[in-house]
Amino acid sequence: MILAAKRRQVNRRHDGRPGVPAVQDHQIPESIAQADGHVCGHTLCESCVDLLFLKGSGACPECMVPLRRNNFRVQLFEDPMVEKEVDIRRRILRDYNKREEDFASLAEYNDYLEEIEDIVYNLCNNIEIIETNKRIEAYKRDNREVIQRNKTRVGRDEYALEEMLELEKVQEEARRKELEELENEHKKKKARDKQALIEELMYSGKDAAQIVTEFAEKAEKQREEEKQLPPPKPANEFSTGIKFGQTADPSLLPVPKSEEGPLFVYEPLVPFSEGPTMPPTSEIVSRGYIAHIRAETPQENAGGFTSALACERALQEALQGLYYTATTGVVSAT
Amino acid sequence: MYPVSSQKRSWTFANEGQLMEFRVEQNSKYIELHEEEAQGRDLNEHFLTSAEERLLLKQYEIYLFDFCRRFEPPMPKCVVGTAFHYFKRFYLNNSPMDYHPKEILATCVFVACKVEEFNVSINQFVNNIKGDRNKATDIVLSNELLLIGQLNYYLTIHNPFRPIEGFLIDIKTRSNMQNPDRLRPHIDSFIDSTYYSDACLLHTPSQIALAAVLHAASREQENLDSYVTDLLFVSAREKLPGLIDAVRKIRIMVKQYQQPDREKVKAIEKKLDKCRNQANNPDSELYKERLRRLYTDEDDMPAEDASFHIADVSSDTSAMNISQ
Which residues form the Cyclin-like domain (chain B) (predicted)? Predict the structure, then answer.
């Protein structure tokens, strides 16, 4: 009560009765009321929740929907409607988890996405709640298998992402190892050099100062050599980690699904002539028919017409219908 | 392909009797519908009889051919053939009292030009028509859809011209006839005269073509009988009588053609002016009234403002003067 009273000064809408929402309070985390299968979306500050839901359950002071204390969550978004929608969406998408490849065509997938939006909108705005819930139940019943399968199956995108992360990890490991080895080598070498210097100083009869400078120079030279050492690795990937010289990952290209329809069945054209049989196409030229028709011009030839075609057509039309006899004729002239 | 065409299926008839039936039926249908217009007079006096209709149409077929022959730019043969087909088909389903043949004639040629890809604009087209060109334009364009509808939208016509070429190629290749090209003038004149007969409604284009070739051969004192029996029908002798019969019928049809008597036709035309369907007469008040209503219905504008050519030139009755 004390807290609530305090807040009265801060918030105009908090009129002292516990449970009346204080929308703009930023200091005290607010919670959002959530009932089973239904979120009324009204906010309460945490202290009000403590007060009102001492027993663990009670009615929402705003709309009298029975609520449980456990179901209160800390509000993430400033607008409770957004919060409510995000929550509903999360719940709906748990079941509506079909993906594009589950549908035969893009159009069907789009219809499905639209249906989800309809449901979310209805639940958010309290339109036809009962019917919508029935719809969800029906969907769950009808698609139990698909839902179950999709839940267990990691999304393809996630899978690809995981693979990439895995690869990165391996590479990092390799790099770390390499560095370690290099460092070890370096240390060993330094120790060897030191040992050599001491031995030199001990056993050779040269001037100590000269030996020291000699060794210093040698070390300097070696260091310079080392700097040039790490040979550039052959580039076989872009900076983003995508390999090149390798064809695009086939899993990234969705196999286009064709619309199911009756297949085309080729039926060869059976010329129906009702007349003497035509000379076969091959004989148009060989038997000299072609000599009696104008040769095609280059323009006509470019259009795909040859004099053999024209010749064949003229012969065909001459022979067609020669056997026709008017036995029945047409019944009516329409 | 002719054997699977609409021309064979719907527009090739069994015999002349069948054609006659259609024509008589159209005639009596029209008279029945307009009986009260006779005002008690003898129906045969007021309306055209079926025989008179035939005579009238025969005269207009001559006009049709002359119109095509004089057409500028000169039109290909197939346009003429197609126009004749349309004209004959149209009057199987309609009476010339309902639609005046001079209007349908021009419309047939216009549609045939389009279908046979002989490209003339409507302005070029009406330049060939004597009389009021605006009015002719209106008549042709307003009848175009009517004609196509009456043809049941079957616009492809199989003319005998390509079969003729086929026969000539075949004759040149397989028979030993000397210079078959000298047959051509006779073939052309034979085909021209088939236009005046009903051959194209009764026989296939290849039969008409063969009849023309055989006729031309006999004119040139050549005999192609052996070509037909020994080369064409060598594998189907049993079909030969049917073909001989068809060729004989076509030749008789052409031979028996008689030009209609000019005086008689003039009398018929006078009669037609009285008994024709005034709703389809562009000079009649009824037609103008109907058109005016049509325009105002469509454009929703007051009747006084409806201005169109036909109303403007109502005094000129000489439009579509193709016959002179």
Answer: 62-147
